[in-house]
Amino acid sequence: MSLDNMVSSLSSLNEADLVRLNNALVHELKHRRHQMNRAARNLFQKGDRVSFGDVSANGKRSYKEGTVHAVKRTRAQVQVGDTVWTVPLNMLQAV
Q1: 8, 11, 53, 66: least surrounded by Cβ within 10 Å?
Q2: Burial zone of 50 (CB within 10 Å; 0-12 exposed, 13-18 middle, 19+ buried)
């Protein structure tokens, strides 16, 4: 069954079925994001050199390089000079 067929058949479901479907989708999304965060958490550890940001941006979104100060559940604290940035793990790249 294609995604278009599934979306078009949603109107034929009752409210209880839609709630059940919604719960299943939310559970699957949370599970996948948890797996991605776990994999990213295993990539970095304290002392690693990393980079984050956009080369073409200015201000706080600009490209930065620093050292991992701590790895939390979904974010890492990265020290750039005298400043410690809290950065989502999926934004980090090893240098």
Answers
A1: 11
A2: buried
Provide the token pair at 77. Answer: 């604290």
Strands (E), 1-95: 49-52, 64-71, 75-80, 83-88, 93-94
How far does Cα 8 stand from its chain's mean position? 30
Residues ≥6 apart with Cβ < 8 Å to 51 = 63, 64, 65, 66, 92, 93, 95
Give the CB-side neighbour count of residue 27, counting CA atoms within 13 A. 6
Is 88 within 8 Å of 71 (Cβ atoms)? Answer: no
What is the per-residue pLDDT across 33-63, written as a single tens digit (0 to 9) for each? 888 888 888 899 999 999 999 888 888 888 9
